[in-house]
Specification:
The structure is a single chain. The chain is an alpha/beta fold. It contains 7 helices and 8 strands. The strands form 2 sheets. It has a 4-stranded mixed sheet, with helices on one face. Helix 3 packs antiparallel against helix 4 and helix 4 packs antiparallel against helix 5. The mean pLDDT is about 95.
Length: about 240
């Protein structure tokens, strides 16, 4: 039998935690309440184990979590989104529990359970990120590639926004108009994720006022569609 490694997460209120994973399609295979709490869930041949939770600290604060490697990550996100919406009447995108947003082409997303455990679902063929941006790119284009890593791989919108804003100050006057428009669209999506609709409107208006060729507007249209899709995804939170 091959050796395996099984992640040990915090159980919190164990019945509530296990019920959350049932919502995501996991099967509870073990549940114990005495002399201490312990639970196991299983799905697609892998397991998550839940033990005793320390007091006065959340699992998220303690950075408790694990990675789950899957062949195709998009179907998992779609299934989880539908299940969580059905369970809560909305998509929990903030607090705990929550699920992070997903863009076409993205290779990972994160689920934080009610205890604060972080489970990151990653596509097996995910390329290694080039921190600092792809060396094949220059100027603002490279800045945007670096910001994409913060936004999509690290779930760090504040850092992504800072990288873009710094890049615009450094390269905005010399960068191609299409790259400037893409930068503004990325900032608009980050603002949408934060619920700042006024900032989204301001950034989209700035893009619409730019002098762009038809093919450049088409290139930016995908970024703007991501903003709209995110707003529709989040509206269930209302």
């Amino acid at each position: 039998m091959a050796e395996i490694s099984i992640p040990m997460l915090w159980g919190g209120n164990l019945p509530e935690t296990l019920d959350f994973y049932r919502t995501l399609g996991y099967k509870v295979t073990y549940e114990m309440s005495r002399p201490y709490t312990y639970g196991v869930v299983e799905r697609n041949g892998f397991q998550l184990h839940f033990g005793v939770t320390p007091k006065h600290l959340s699992a998220e604060e303690a950075h408790v979590g694990c990675l789950v490697l899957v062949d195709a990550v998009a179907p998992w996100h779609a299934e989880f989104t539908a299940a969580l919406r059905a369970r809560y009447g909305r998509i929990p995108a903030r607090g705990a529990p929550r699920i992070t947003r997903f863009r076409p082409g993205q290779t990972r997303f994160t689920v934080v359970d009610p205890v604060g455990n972080t489970v990151i679902y990653i596509q097996r063929d995910e390329p290694d990120p080039e921190y600092g941006g792809s060396k094949k790119l220059v100027g603002l284009a490279r800045v945007l590639d670096n910001a994409r890593i913060f936004r999509d791989s690290k779930n760090d919108d504040p850092s992504a926004a800072r990288v873009i804003e710094t890049g615009l100050r450094r390269h905005g006057s010399t960068a191609p108009a299409v790259d400037r428009a893409r930068a503004l669209a990325m900032l608009a999506e980050i603002a949408a994720a934060a619920g700042n609709s006024a900032r989204v409107t301001e950034l989209v208006a700035e893009i619409e006022g730019m002098q762009l060729r038809v093919r450049e507007r088409r290139a930016v249209a995908g970024e703007l569609q991501a903003v709209t899709a995110l707003q529709h995804w989040l509206v269930e939170e209302g």
